[in-house]
Amino acid sequence: MTESLKLTIDRRDGLAVIYTEGYINNQGGEEIARAAYSLLEEGYRALLLNLTGTRIINSIGISILIEIIEKMLEVEGKLAFCALTPTIEKTFHIMGLAQYASIFHDESTAVAGIVT
Amino acid sequence: MTAKTPLREVKLVLPMAPDMELVASQAASALAIWVGMSADRVDEVRMAVVEACINAFEHSHARERKVDISFAVWGELAPERLEIRVHDNGVGFSPADVEEPKIEHKIRGDRKRGWGLKIIQGLMDEVRILSGSRGTTVVMSKSR
């Protein structure tokens, strides 16, 4: 039954993209947080979460994403999301996440938006 | 005129155990598709059901570690509306006392959680919460 989350990380010049595949629940959120904090330690200050492989997320997972957003604000970094399903994007707007993290339709737009 | 009996009814009893919310979401998805909802509306129902289950798992303090979920499809001649009831046998709560979460408070606060009801209300057409000493039932519905 478990749709465990798989992560793939693409380190680029000044930007790291984290690709998710599967359910973002508490364990999934923690995995993303570990990856994000590890990238911060490596010196990355711009992170993009590409959720193209995630169709479902829960509020516990999103709460952990809020912790990552807070951490990024502390280090004056940038966190953005792209390739969200319409429902996940709607949920992020219901919660107000867009006030603190940019949401882009696709990865190329996101990369251009983060780098500039 | 309102139909007196649902066109289709499904009942589930799920243990309060990790990922059991996904079982409920699969049933919700199948019925929402049968109602004729768009893919996006089906996803909204799935997510709302997941949140209602997680709320029951995490906050009900129920001795009997299970949730009862009923799905009913309503309509005159064809399926029109899906109603979902998620019930726990917990201690109950007063919905009026639940503070609405605000991102500006959560982002720098210690407690990041507490979004479930807000998400459910944002994704479903109608939401009612019936709560007392015999537990809580979240009643939510969405039309085609």
* Biggest sheet architecture of chain B: 5 strands, antiparallel
Mean pLDDT of chain B: 95
What would CATH call the homologous superfamily of chain B?
Answer: Histidine kinase-like ATPase, C-terminal domain
CATH class of chain B: Alpha Beta
Distance between the termini of chain A: 42 Å
Shape of chain A: globular
Number of domains of chain B: 1
Would you identify the CATH architecture of chain B?
2-Layer Sandwich
Strand content of chain B: 25-35%
Number of continuous helical runs of chain A: 4
**CATH H-level name of chain A... which superfamily?**
STAS domain
Protein chain pair with the most extensive contact, residues per chain: A-B, 31 and 30 residues
Helicity range of chain B: 25-40%
Number of strands of chain B: 5
Number of helices of chain B: 4
CATH topology of chain A: Transcription Regulator spoIIAA
Oligomeric state of the chains present here: heterodimer
Summing up helix and strand content along with how strands pair, one would put the structural category of chain A as alpha/beta
Describe the structure.
Chain A has a single domain, classed as STAS domain (Transcription Regulator spoIIAA). In chain A, α1 packs parallel to α2. With 116 residues, chain A is an alpha/beta fold. Chain B is globular, with a radius of gyration of 15 Å. Chains A and B meet through α2 and α3 of A and α1, α2, α3 and α4 of B.
Break the fold down into its secondary structure elements and pairings.
The complex is a heterodimer of chains A (116) and B (144).
Chain A: E1 6-12, E2 15-21, H1 26-42, E3 46-53, H2 59-74, E4 78-82, H3 86-95, E5 102-104, H4 107-115
Parallel strand pairs in A: 2-3, 3-4, 4-5
Antiparallel strand pairs in A: 1-2
Helix pairs in contact in A: 1-2
Chain B: E1 8-15, H1 20-35, H2 39-59, E2 66-74, E3 81-88, H3 103-106, H4 116-123, E4 126-132, E5 135-143
Antiparallel strand pairs in B: 1-2, 2-3, 3-5, 4-5
Helix pairs in contact in B: 1-2, 2-4
